[in-house]
Amino acid sequence: MSGRGQGGLSVLVVGAGPAGCATALGLARRGVEVVLIERGRFPRDKVCGDVLLPEAQQALADLGLDLAPLAARCHRIDRCRYHAPSGLCVELPFCDRHGESRPWWVVKRRDFDGWLVAQACAAGAGLCEGVSAVDLVIRDAAVAGVVVRDDGGARREIAAAAVVGADGASSTLARALGRFERPAAHLCVAVRGYAPSPHGDDPVFDIYTSARTLPGCAWHVPTGDGCANVGLGVLRSDLDRQRIGARALLDEVAGRYPELAQRLAAATGVVGWSLPGASLPLSRSTAGALLVGDAGCMVDPWTGHGIHTALIAGSLAADVVADALAAGEVGAGALGRFDRLWQQRFGLEMKLGWLLQRFCASPGRVEAMLALAARSERRRQIIGGLIGHAYPRQRWLDPQLGLRFAIGR
Ligand SMILES: Cc1cc2nc3c(=O)[nH]c(=O)nc-3n(C[C@H](O)[C@H](O)[C@H](O)COP(=O)(O)OP(=O)(O)OC[C@H]3O[C@@H](n4cnc5c(N)ncnc54)[C@H](O)[C@@H]3O)c2cc1C
């Protein structure tokens, strides 16, 4: 197949969130013709906790972006306060193994996504806003384009040599490919709103748990503008088992923590969303198409973060698609390389994330870990580093770390 679809584009990316923008940026940088279609119009909101982890910051730097203007807008968070079901509360710093602080950057998605899409356009990607993908065009058993509908309801086909589905948790493209598996044990359900907060400028993120939320939790994330992001994320299977909705469970948790109740009472725009976990084994490639970000179930199953994985997956997808186009072959074999690269980069990390999620499903185990942490600064650093993604999770496989945790020094 040539670099262009029959009379069409080289690459069409559906969805201009972090995954789509990173893909488009990577392709544009490699000189590949790429167009993003986005059903919304920027600036637009996205339900999120608004945290850019150290890995997300690194992924943005790896995309060759000048981060100074973004960094100037972000609020820094350098630790969390973990509230266990018993009421035990321990402060955990986000430090790497040398004790260096690795702060989170907090920026509202309305601002971050608008900034990122502008970077993709500046790199040469095209952008069509107010255009929704409604189906795939399949020719000779391969994806050959997308059926789209514009704001006015008009439908048309856009042909493309390769299509990248980056259309988020409710992905139309994943459905069209028959890859929309969302089993309740691998799906997190979340609600989030914004509240004015006297602690909105603090560098501390609060995690509130109860026996019914674990391994999930409620949170209070200061956004640095006198406001805070408040919400809750839990496994769909736990909600189903306990016959309760996410919003009702958030209210229930707030009933145990007066400061959370106060913040929640003033919150506006409390909206629900889902997070498809990367614990689900899934092929994200087929002839002519890839799925990236939430569309391809790439959310960390333990911490619920998905911006860094979306950005890194977008970069990997851009390389795979650009190489495939250059070789004149975008079949299942060539694009299947993406699945292998994802697996190499995130396979072990996501497996460990799933194990940590299972570990934290037990209130007794969480209490025991926190009680140990309360007695040692070293343990607080180790757990805080894990929660804050301040160092690779794989380090837990290092016996030395286990030993340090055991002796607490
Ligand atoms: C409550 C909550 C809190 C979270 N907190 C964090 C956090 O603090 N940090 C973190 O790293 N992750 C967090 N996540 C996860 C994170 O939001 C996602 O993993 C991340 O946004 C995935 O990026 P994406 O580009 O794949 O999808 P999205 O950001 O969802 O972007 C998809 C884009 O596709 C567009 N689109 C959808 N359908 C179509 C269509 N048919 N046609 C055209 N366009 C379409 C959408 O409008 C959107 O712009 C949170 C998620 C939730 C729900």
Fold and architecture overview:
- With 409 residues, the chain is of the alpha/beta class.
- The strands form three sheets. Strands 1, 2, 8, 9, 10, 11, 17 and 18 form an eight-stranded mixed β-sheet that branches. Strands 6-5-13-14-15-12-16 form a seven-stranded mixed β-sheet, with helices on both faces.
- The N and C termini lie far apart (59 Å).
- It is built from 14 helices and 18 strands.
- It has helices spanning 18-29, 54-62, 68-73, 109-123, 172-176, 236-242, 246-256, 258-265, 307-326, 332-335, 337-359, 363-374, 377-387, 399-407, and strands at residues 9-14, 34-38, 51-52, 75-77, 79-83, 89-93, 104-106, 126-129, 131-139, 142-150, 155-165, 187-196, 204-208, 217-222, 227-235, 268-276, 285-286, 289-291.
- It has two domains: 9-66 and 108-182 and 278-353, 3-Layer(bba) Sandwich (FAD/NAD(P)-binding domain); 184-276, 2-Layer Sandwich (D-Amino Acid Oxidase, Chain A, domain 2).
- The relative contact order is 0.17.
- Helix 1 (18-29) packs parallel to helix 9 (307-326), helix 7 crosses helix 8 (258-265) and helix 12 crosses helix 13 (377-387).
- The protein is globular, with a radius of gyration of 21 Å.
- A hairpin with an 8-residue loop joins strand 13 and strand 14 (217-222).
- Residues 14-20, 37-40, 46-51, 53, 56, 132-133, 166-168, 172, 190, 192, 231, 233, 273, 275, 293-295, 299, 304-308, 310 line the site of flavin-adenine dinucleotide.
